[in-house]
Amino acid sequence: MTYMQDAQHTMKAAVWYRARDLRVENVVVPTLKDPHQVKVKIAACGICGSDLHEYSAGPIFIPTEAPHPISQERAPIIMGHEFAGEVVEVGDRVTRVKPGDRVAIEPILSPNQDGQYLMDRYNLTPLLGFHGLSGGGGGFSEYTVTGEHMVHPMPETLSYEQGALVEPAAVALHAVRQSALKAGDKAVVFGAGPIGLMVIEALKAAGASRIIAVELSEVRRRKAADLGALTVDPQQHDVVERVHELTQGGADFAFEVTGIPAVLKQAINATHAGGETVIVSIWETEATFQPNELVIKERTLKGIIAYRHIYPAVMALMARGYFQAADLITDRIALDDVVELGFETLLNDKSQIKIIVQP
Asked: Is the distance from CB of 315 to CB of 104 less than 8 angstroms?
């Protein structure tokens, strides 16, 4: 797609050119090119941790050399993948939604046909990409076009801001559902950023009897405490020892949401014999641990990526009061301010949790 000026049909969008080069500029308004596509007028879009990585140290998911096989695009691309909005136009064969519907977008790019993902575990495709990271449009714009398999009607009771939180909440809920956690189990979450806080909410929904959050930032520890977690400051305590004390012998489950190598070891060792550690982070470096820490205690280590088949469950839980915008959104900004008041603020101010961009 070439981003050219055409005064009649342009819109503002935040376009990624390279690390530290994100520009709000006029681009062509996208149009439907397939009978299973849907055009959405975006109402709210969150800034994600992976957006920050792309901005500060990318490209990671953003295709720069060759076009992404599904979007057929490469940088410069429009960013933004946590969003909700109103359907304004649909292709001839779209059956799931109609103009006027309020929808949350599931931004996964995975092989699809006739308005459906082809794989059951569609998040595990080798071609995995994301709308708003891998080309094809994005949520930091006024309009975008997606496949109908990517749009989910929102319950009437949810606001558009709440709809923009469905994507990160889906990551958290998928992480907890992929673990073997049962009601009454004890869990520890390493990292209380946006996803870590949502893992706490997902653990509450799943019936965890005790939730511990390990986090350096005092502001984020307070946030975790507000959501009902016991908190541990890793600068004040031996984390593993402290978690074993607070759980009377070790957590049943640990969730690693920092991507920091030393933390992975702590997460594994914070569980008791037979415990499970789930890695939720995307990593920029390698991490080491002593395999005997798994072997001798028969612990399990597993990873998760994104989510699948889970948006309706997330929205049903939101309607019941979980993953609330009031607990998680710390600022609202205009699209024009996305770099200074959005990305730069999040990089420098750990008191911010989720910033919502309103195109």
From this structure: yes
Q: What is the separation of C-alpha 313 from the centre of its chain, rounded to a whole number of angstroms?
A: 16
What is the distance between the alpha carbons of residues 246 and 243, in angstroms, rounded to a whole number?
5
**Distance separating alpha carbons of residues 210 and 185, to the nearest angstrom:** 7
DSSP state at residue 55: H
As its CATH architecture, domain 7-165+323-358 has: Alpha-Beta Complex (3.90)
Per-residue pLDDT tens over the stretch 76-122: 999 999 999 999 999 999 999 999 999 999 999 999 999 999 999 99
Locate CATH 3.90.180.10 in the chain: 7-165+323-358
Can you tell me the distance from the alpha carbon of 259 to that of 285, in angstroms, rounded to the nearest whole number?
8
Number of other residues whose CB lies within 10 A of the CB of residue 183: 8
pTM of the model: 0.96
Tokens of 35: 């009978």
Q: Is 7 exposed, middle or buried (0-12, 13-18, 19+ CB in 10 A)?
A: exposed
CA 42 to chain centre: 17
Homologous superfamily assigned to 169-303: NAD(P)-binding Rossmann-like Domain (3.40.50.720)
* CA separation for the pair 232, 256 (Å, rounded): 14
Query: What sign for the dihedral angle of Cα 287, 293, 294, 295?
Result: positive
Closest CA to 230 of 192, 198, 179: 192
* 300-303 sheet: strands from edge to edge: 230-232, 210-214, 186-190, 251-256, 271-279, 300-303
